[in-house]
Amino acid sequence: MAGLDEAYERRGKGERQTVVLCRRAMATVLGDADPGAFHRMLVFDAWIGNQDRHHENWGFAKNSDGHWRFADIFDNGSSLLREMSSDESLRRKVGTPFLREGYIARSSSEIRWEAGRKIPHLDLFRLCADSEPGFRETAASMLASSMEEVERAVHEIAVFARDSGVEPGISPMREGILLDVLAERRARLLERLT
């Protein structure tokens, strides 16, 4: 991106990392191959509340045939309530529907609409839905996943974490709150598509 914007800073979180500049970088590397890949990442980040998608946490990979592609989504650790390491912290910060609502509304993206200004995922999602060609279709397809599938996946991960002794683990309370947050985020994102 620094090659496309002389003022782009290579260090830090990428204050100039905007949707438009990211799309230009993709077009430079990939041409018109898989135009929905970037949109899928934005939708995924908004749904899980990823707050660390800076310019070093997404990129490109070369296939075995030598062609470039958008890399699989990686480094999603700053999401899914990770900043609350104890059940007590969860209870204090997102233990009620009112607290969860505020938490979801504040979650922001490192990918910006305008250079230098972070905005909440929900706002970035709405702006993309209103002006990015193909974004609405990509988002609708991803958000069509049933919550039963999401619940099953989260439960399997939670049981694995509890059985393997992973710290801090995923207590039944954390699992329930996480599912509530994912369901509420999904509902809010779907509202922005209508």
- Mean of pLDDT: 93
Name given to the CATH architecture: Orthogonal Bundle
What is the CATH topology classification name? Answer: Phosphatidylinositol 3-kinase Catalytic Subunit, Chain A, Domain 5
Largest sheet, in brief, is: 2 strands, antiparallel
Q: What count of domains describes the coordinates? A: 1
Give the termini distance in whole angstroms: 33 Å
Radius of gyration: 18 Å
Low-confidence stretches: none
What is the 3D form? Answer: globular
- The percent of residues in helical segments reads 40-55%
Enumerate the strands of the largest sheet in spatial order, edge to edge or round the barrel.
Answer: 1-2
Order of helices and strands: HHEEHHHHHH
Count of separate DSSP helical elements: 8
Q: How much beta, percentage-wise? A: under 5%
Indicate the structural class.
Answer: mainly alpha
Strand runs, count? 2
Highest CATH level, the class = Mainly Alpha
Outline the structure in words:
The radius of gyration is 18 Å and the shape is globular. The longest helix is centred in the C-terminal third of the chain and has 22 residues. It is built from 8 helices and 2 strands, in the order H-H-E-E-H-H-H-H-H-H. The two termini are 33 Å apart. Strands 1-2 form a two-stranded antiparallel ribbon. It has a single domain, classed as Phosphatidylinositol 3-kinase Catalytic Subunit, Chain A, Domain 5, CATH 1.10.1070. The protein has 194 residues and is mainly α. The model has no long low-confidence stretch (mean pLDDT 93).
